[in-house]
# Entry
Amino acid sequence: MNESHLRRMKDLPSTHLLGAGTPMCAGCGGLQALHEIYDLLGAKTVFVNAAGCMTLLSVYPFTPFRGSWLYTAMASAPAGAQGVRDALDILIQKRRIGREEDLETVVLTGDGAAYGMGLSATSAAIERNLDFLYICYDNEGYGNTGQQYSGATPHAAKTSTSTGPSGYAGDKKDLFAIWAAHRPAYVATVIGAEPLDLARKIEAAKQLRGPRLIIALAPCPVGWGYSPEETVNVGKLAVKTGIWPLKEYIDGHVIHTKVPRSRLPVEDYLKVQNRFAHLFTPQRDEAMLVSLQTKVDDYWKNIA
Amino acid sequence: MYRIRFHGRGGQGIKTAGRILGNAFFHEGFQVQDAPRYGAERRGAPIFAYVRASRDVIHERGIIRHPDLVVVADDSLVPVPAAGILEGISRRTVLLVYSHDTDATWQARLSTSAKILVLPPPKKPTEVPEQGSVGAACVGAAARLIGVISADALRRAIEDELADAGPVVVRENVHYALDAYEYVGEHQGLVKEGGEPSARDYERPAWISLPFEDARVSAPAIYAAATSVEVRTGLWRTLRPVIDYARCNRCWWVCGSFCPDSAIDLGDQGYPQIDYDHCKGCMICVAQCPPHAISAIPETDAEQEQPAEIEP
Amino acid sequence: MSAKLLTGNGAAAWGARLAAVDYIPAFPITPQTEIIETLGAWIDHGKMDARMVTLESEHSMITAAGAAAATGVRVFTATSSQGLLYGMEMLYTVAGWRAPFVLVNVSRGLSAPITLEPDHNDILAARDSGFLQLHCATCQEVLDNTLLAYRLAEDKGVRLPVIVNMDGFYLSFTREPVALPDPETVGRFVGEYDAENIRFRASAPASQAVAVLGGSPYSYFRYETHLASQNALRVYEELGKQYSELFGRSYEPVEAYHCDDAEWVFVMMGCFATKAKAAVNQLREAGWKIGLVRPRLLRPFPGECFRRALIGKKGVAVIDQNISMGKGGVLYAELASELYGQSNMPAVLASFIGGLGGRDISSEEFFTIAATLREAVNENRTPPPRLLYTEKELREVRKLQAIAHVERQQLSAK
# Structure
């Protein structure tokens, strides 16, 4: 991470740009991350959105954005960003608008679009070296339709389409690695519960040009099954147990920006969410718990 | 209206020939419509192009059913039903064939009332046009047979079409075209404009009401393996690979593995055998054979050794 | 103004070049690819000041086209067939953005079975999207209507994207003489794109294409789009007059050929309609009072123009180069709904379906359609819908089925 003027929490903005009054659920971890991000990106932005929870941020005639917004469709927000970016470049190049009218093009999608339907459009936007920032709020399921499993759902989680005794049979896709494999300018994971880490990464991304991609783990009270006030605690547990590694990819290298000194047991994170309750009641699924812990341990084995 | 069809193979400049003739008509003040027709096949496969020209606006479009002139740039296509060379020809059609054989030979070979005229390749081998320029020679002859296109319009038509290919290519193609234009001079104007179909006297189409057939029959599915072998892609070939078994070292695999078309198998003795019904003449086997035991010979020479049967 | 032999694809590319488009999102598909190759070469060699980007799908291509138009630049794009359908979600979406741009569709039959040659099921699938539709019958019309399409799309009373449609192969790969209008006059006609309030600028925040909740605002926005589309009829009529004054070629929403004294009329769209024109000439030679009516504008539907052209006719044959499965010809149904209940309308409106997947329609077939119409009027009945298909064609299909090993007893059991 570049040297940042954001040294401590008190350096973070104290007034907030994103308008209140949105229809997002109370305690939404995604909105928390977005408003932290928006403080740093500011109003000279155009958010290009794909179908998901946050499509409802702008419902006629209400929008929380002080800058601009374009809703596209579930699969093609990065292509929408391409059209906007190219059009702004053309307008500036042909001197129809001044540089001061330029905007940062930001794609905003959930994990359903980012991990699945929109992955081809994202891959292509990166290969074309599109100058844009992609923000994925990852609530680990198709949240807007009632939390069915998606490509981002973790192993064993119950969702409304994985209701059996073992939960979701698949594994969470490593989108960070998929994005990084394209060698874009920047990739990072963030979480709203770690605002300083998040802010430093957005600052870093702002300094760069080209494709810059951010995955924000978005604890979801409704979809994950916990009370809204726990969003930050759940988020912190995701980091402290090592489930959600905070890291960034830059110049061909992956750097972990927050390595938990002594990781808490994964169980501490699982047991506070209803979607994992079947691992504890009516009886403990020891085998599954061990296996989930082992996966996290294996991940961290070679890191710092 | 003049209705002209060009037949040849992909790679022989057939599309270009159609466009050159279209340009030439256009220079002479005609309304023109020209188009190539090809399917999904590639180089070597039969293609055709058509040209319509008229002093009036042309409303007709698509395939030409009753051509005034049919130009065949590759005589090996004549016996190929899929090439459709003889479709819709009649007493008043002129058939121009680029061929070593004589008018009389073709007249005997084809039981047709159409007038057949042969344009022979030049006698000197150095004068024989490259594959891509055969079309230019054909279009030169066609222009003269039509009779309303001047040599100058022909030259300009070629220059328009081939300008991007550079002056050498233009010069060569003008040369082939004008040579052919001269060669058929005595037949100038042999091709006559065809009339319009008559709405007084015509045959009603035998329309039918399609019967319902259940999906076991009427879905687009093939219930068998490898039916593609019924397609004789050997007809695409202009060069033939021939194995000299005295030099073949029976390596077992090189020519057969690299042949993209599964057209080389091993025989009982471990010698490769080429399936000429399907070999497209790509010559990868010739290029890859370690002891250089496979050579390429022109298909026309091979046919003379082993006369191909002409299907009725 | 100079004339040149151009393919339909070439004419479309010239249309985009003369309209001085800024941006071309692209994706290759037969038989459209020549358009983007031609434009790409002009851009690469400095003959056109535009930016072309190849997207990874038509869905993305149409998204980028709409997004760029919504940012305030003039956009051109092109596709065909499966590509149009792959982008179908975005056709509806970007039309709702009220972002004006022009898309050339090169019609090609739809899968399955997948094929290359034309019919109109692709473009008709976009019928209800909000895009206006201009259907061309000659290469000249492709160029002229591409220019008209920009004026139409960008008109303040319309502001909707436009599809200019041409048939694959029969226009796309066919050269005809095309008069190239003088660029300066075109410049005056097409003018600069005034994006009005559809734009993204740092100084003017805008949220476009936002959601609505509830049917009431939804109905409002949707019906306004419908009204804008309907406005385009009058605007096209006006633009056609202006175009005629500047370039000498006039365009009306519906072309009526030899209709004034006609008792019998063919109705067709697309370039097969010129085949019908040839048949009209040949039938008139044989004493028939017959004409052709061809819609250039299909959306908005020029119902009034049709009624004017068909009033008092004895019999009308609609030849649809499309098929709505389980219903029949689309244009037939649309026309019937315009004529029903009006006074002095044709006694017989007959439906024919022909030219699917590029299947030819012969002059003898046109003659027989005319004869069928006359017989029907004499007998005072509407003939059943007819697919133009011959015994010989079915025999050829039987041969193919034999190779495909469709079991004989299944065939013979029928």
User: Anything to note?
Assistant: The mean pLDDT of chain C is 96. Chain C has two domains: 2-247, 254-388.
